[in-house]
Specification:
416 residues; alpha/beta; Aspartate Aminotransferase, domain 2; 2 domains; seven-stranded mixed sheet; four-stranded mixed sheet; 15 strands; globular; binds pyridoxal-5'-phosphate
Length: 416
């Protein structure tokens, strides 16, 4: 393992935390750790303390930390060409677009730098498709869902169904209608009500599993029902797979579990193993709306990020990580269910698919105590939506590592 080469060799960690608090915006509430290096599913802080990582950079480090093939691919690409702009082509972005098309069946890719940016591209292409391809410029309504999360840019935030994130930023974009996740009757009601106005709904955006909203699974038939309604009313159906994509649920993308295909697919997080990259994929017909000059991103499609993503996809294929994510996810789910059975008063539910699993606890206070206690026991975990402990380890995680993580949570539940 590479030794840690500190930028602050003479400074203590508390002093470094003080520096961070002084100079970074107060928009995050980081744990009091400064992480320095990682290997596989373990990370180490600058003082050498080891942590088992069930956060994986929030479902980003799909190959874990310092995966030799990803490190080699990034280093080789950095030595060759990091950035050229979209005024010119580069080989890694062409190879990645080719590969993603082969894996998903989508014709076209737009590359940006984050999940929010992928969703911005999706919302823009949907709007422009309705306007310039379908000749329906008034179809500006967007159907989204309570408890959804699509990112922090103004467009993505506007379709995020969690009012706490909107506070202080209103007015946001006009157009979104929010209905309960899983409720097709409410979908029909919203579509009907908007159809009677001057701005009908033209787009639906949905996460096939709500992630930040608490690892909420769609009820059977719900996503299929959205597909039917999108077909019936000529709506653009966007699946936000920023968190569920790239093998996390045991398939390349979660939509594959449902025997359907959205019109637009977004992904980011795990695709380049930690190098920033967001992707919006769509069909030839919808992509036609994006003629030259209609959308762009300076860093998008840069050879460093796209080469990293290509290597992540190749390793997932070569090492059978889709099958493994499914099998290890089943094991984790069963282990969490056993914990729930042991603590019926403290654990209220277990939800998830593959290597995205949530353990729902009886209170937000308990969730905070478990997250803090886990850290003290050398385990990184976080809670979403207040009460749900989220497990999104690297796809390379072993059964022994999952068992070790569940054992620590079990001990903490016994003690609390
Ligand atoms: C489903 C989903 N969409 C979008 C985003 C936003 O991604 P980013 O933070 O890369 O902009 C997230 C981030 O958590 C997410 O989970």
């Amino acid at each position: 393992m590479t030794a840690f080469d500190s930028l602050f060799p003479d400074e203590t960690t508390p002093s470094l935390l003080g520096r961070a608090l002084r100079h970074l915006t107060p928009s995050y509430r980081p744990a009091p750790l400064v992480l320095a290096r990682g290997q596989g599913c373990e990370v180490f802080d600058r003082d050498g303390t080891r942590y088992l990582d069930m956060v994986g950079g929030i479902a980003v480090n799909s190959l874990g930390h310092a995966h030799p093939r990803l490190v080699a691919a990034i280093a080789a690409q950095a030595a060759q060409l990091i950035h050229v702009s979209n005024l010119y082509l580069n080989e890694p972005s062409i190879a990645l677009a080719d590969k993603l098309s082969a894996l998903t069946g989508f014709d076209r890719c737009f590359f940006g730098n984050s999940g929010a940016e992928a969703n911005e591209a999706a919302l823009k292409v949907a709007r422009r498709y309705q306007t310039v391809v379908r000749g329906a410029p008034n179809k500006i309504g967007i159907l989204s869902f309570d408890n959804s999360f699509h990112g922090r840019t103004v467009g993505a935030l506007s379709v995020t169904g969690q009012p706490k994130y909107h506070q202080g930023f209103e007015p946001l974009l006009p157009g979104p209608h929010f209905v309960p996740f899983g409720d097709l009757a409410a979908v029909d009601q919203a579509l009907g009500a908007a159809a009677a106005t001057s701005t009908p709904i033209g787009t639906i955006i949905v996460e096939p599993i709500q992630c930040e909203g608490g690892i909420n699974m769609p009820p059977p038939g719900f996503l299929e029902g959205l597909r039917e309604r999108a077909d019936a009313h000529d709506l653009v159906l966007i699946f936000d797979e920023v968190q569920t994509g790239v093998g996390r649920t045991g398939r390349w993308f979660c939509f594959e579990h449902h025997g359907l295909r959205p019109d637009v697919l977004t992904t980011a997080k795990g695709i380049a193993g930690g190098v920033p990259l967001g992707v919006m994929m769509t069909t030839d017909r919808i992509a036609e709306a994006l003629q030259p000059g209609t959308h762009a991103s300076t860093f998008g499609a840069n050879p460093l990020a796209t080469r990293a993503a290509l290597e992540v996809l190749r390793v997932i294929e070569d090492d059978g990580l889709l099958v493994q994510a499914h099998a290890h996810g089943e094991h984790l789910h069963a282990a969490l269910r056993a914990l729930a059975a042991r603590h019926p008063d403290k654990v209220t539910d277990v939800r998830g698919r593959g290597l995205i699993q949530g353990l729902d606890l009886a209170s937000a206070d308990l969730a905070t105590r478990i997250v803090d206690g886990a850290r003290a026991h050398g385990l990184l975990l976080n809670a979403v939506h207040g009460t749900t402990l989220r497990f999104v380890p690297p796809l390379i995680v072993s059964i022994a590592e999952l068992d070790a993580a569940v054992a620590i949570v079990g001990t903490l539940l016994d003690l609390s």
